[in-house]
Write a structure and sequence with these properties.
two-stranded antiparallel sheet, mainly beta, stress response, 7 strands, Heat shock protein HspQ, five-stranded antiparallel beta sheet, Hemimethylated_DNA-bd_dom, about 100 residues, Hemimethylated_DNA-bd_sf
Length: about 100
């Protein structure tokens, strides 16, 4: 039986990598790396939740998949500059990113 995992971070939250000069906005959480009690992921692959994010570093914007254990909240209040953000998010109060509402027509 698989364990229920709760995401530490939220869609639209700005985070940064614990070790590298990278920050981004989360747009998806991937649980396929979580493994199960019967088949835990013990190889070199990431275990636990993996977050997909619109990321930026000092050079270029890109899309990244980062393990939860390698992330921490970004409290700088600085906007993330990635061309993909505008299609999925709008900027709300206090610089937070909110998913855009999709029109049904």
């Amino acid at each position: 039986m698989s364990k229920t995992q709760f995401a530490r971070y939220n869609i639209g939250q700005v985070i940064r990598h614990r070790l590298y000069a990278m920050r981004g906005v989360i747009f998806d959480v991937d649980t396929s790396f979580a493994g199960t009690d019967d088949e835990p992921r013990t190889s070199g692959a990431a275990t636990g939740l993996v977050y997909r994010l619109f990321a930026e570093d000092d050079e270029v914007p890109y899309v990244a998949s980062i393990a939860e254990r390698d992330l921490e909240p970004d409290e700088s209040g600085e906007p993330v500059r990635h061309p993909g953000i505008g299609a999925m998010f709008e900027i709300g109060e206090a610089g937070r990113y909110r998913r855009r509402r999709l029109s049904m027509n």
